[in-house]
Amino acid sequence: MQATSRVAQVSVPGFVDHHAHLLKAAAGVPLSATPQQVREFHHRVAGQGRTPMDVLDPAGALSAPGLPDRLSAGLATAAAAGLVEVTEMGMRSWAYLDALAELQRAGPLPCRVRIYVASGLATEASLDELDARREHCGGWLRLEGVKFYADGWLVPRTCALSDEFADSADRGVLFTDAEGLARQVEPLVKRGWLIATHAIGDRAVRTVLDAYDLVFGGDHAAIAAAAPRVEHASVLSTDLVARLAESGVVACIQPSFALTDAAQLDPALGSERARHAYPWADLAGAGVRMLAGSDYPIELLEPLPGLTRLVTGRSARHGFAAEGSAPRQARLTPATAFALMTDRAAGETVLSADPRAVDPAEIDLISVLGTQPAPF
Questions:
Q1: Is 319 left (phi over 0), alpha (psi -120 to 50) or beta?
Q2: Most CB within 10 Å of its CB: which of 200, 218, 300, 304?
Q3: Nearest CA to 53 among 166, 197, 177, 218?
Q4: 3-state DSSP call for residue 18?
Q5: Which residues contact 357 (CB under 8 A, 6 or more apart)?
Q6: What's the CATH number where 369 sits?
Q7: How far apart are the first and last CA of the chain?
Q8: Rounded CA gap, 39 and 143, in Å?
Q9: Residue 5: inside a domain, yes or no?
Q10: Is residue 364 one of the residues assigned to a domain?
Q11: Bridge partners, residue 85, by sequence
Q12: Contacting residues for 156 by C-beta, under 8 A, at least 6 apart
């Protein structure tokens, strides 16, 4: 995209989205549902001894003609929003990878793509098959990790808490225990696969950290080198913040969650626990290794309003101008937030102004003028 000569231009480290479901959305596979439907789904899957990452995408939309074109359009949308890289977090069909490979043979992708395979898809293949798929991905695509699932979500009251929800005699859904998760993770770690596990509630986060300790024998240096991730880490205690910092585990947070869930915090958790929800400032202050990902299409894909929300707790774009704001513990300094959402090694994003040099409330008024993604 070309800007006129009268529009200021500045190149900044490229915006990256470390946690999205862009390919799934672009393919036309439904993702979102009502809280009640999500709650019923989580309880049903748990009752079957499975997790949401074991439920693979239906073949219908993926086998229809035009999947490469739909994925290309989705990646072009991401590039237009200012992203130079997107991580697909939990790919549930090899059809996506095959379609991306076809696109790559025709030329560079609009932005580069990292993929974490859903655990259910990974277990259908042998370790040798997984390794073979990983080896020949090309310059714009990386197949590098496996995603697991430990608990549910906060709004439908299925995230796994240590104590009951404030408005329900329920502690949520825990899909696995530490020993079971460790048994699944360990063979993959030995093959050099990266690991990410969805865990929102404190009981789930503790379970995931226990599992990682089992896999790595409690060796924090080995954990830091392998960089296993906790996705979301939304409801934490003070001791879990400290444990994350000490362990070297990476926390991938979502810039919009604390705003879009704000009205649910006190009803779900009570005022005392709500003060420990989305504690991004505490994580940063403790030295926890952090990344940021949108969780699109559950949340918006555009990084600039996401950055504004992470810094100010609100955003004039896409609503939420007057309805409320995220709690203070969910806000970061502009420099810290920008670092979590960008990576110069992935390319550059061309903007009308540098987000680090304007009033934080005006970040989402900046225009995206183009992107310059870099191949791997």
A1: left
A2: 200
A3: 197
A4: strand
A5: none
A6: 3.20.20.140
A7: 22
A8: 31
A9: no
A10: yes
A11: 16, 112
A12: 35, 36, 38, 39, 42
Number of structural domains in the chain: 1
The closest of 286, 224, 297, 212 to 256, measured between CA atoms, is 297
- Quote the tokens at residue 199: 């865990």
Q: What is the mean pLDDT of each run of 10 residues along the chain (376 residues)?
A: 65 98 95 91 97 92 91 98 98 96 95 98 94 92 98 98 96 98 98 98 98 97 98 97 98 96 95 94 98 97 96 78 78 97 98 96 94 97
| Of 146, 182, 159, residue with least CA distance to 43 | 159
Buried b (16+ CB within 10 A) or exposed e, 295-304: bbbbbbbbbb
DSSP state, residue 300: -
Look up the pTM and report it: 0.95
DSSP assignment string, 170-235:
----B---HHHHHHHHHHHHHTT-EEEEEE-SHHHHHHHHHHHHHHHTT-HHHHHHH--EEEE--B
Place of tokens 């006129």: 4
Range of the domain at 94: 10-373
Q: Are 82 and 304 in contact (CB under 8 A)?
A: yes
CB 269 within 8 A of CB 165: yes
Q: Which residue, among 303, 364, 315, has the nearest Cα to 339 in the 3D structure? A: 303
**Parallel, antiparallel or unpaired: strands 194-199 and 229-232:** parallel
- The residue with tokens 């990790």 is 145
Instruction: Give the separation between CA 312 and CA 331, rounded to whole angstroms.
Output: 6
| Element (DSSP H or E) covering residue 347 | strand 347-351
Quick check: is 1 in a domain?
A: no
Q: Which of 318, 320, 326 is nearest to 297 (CA)?
A: 318
- Tell me the two tokens of residue 322: 């007057």
Residue 8's pLDDT is 87
In a domain? residue 325: yes
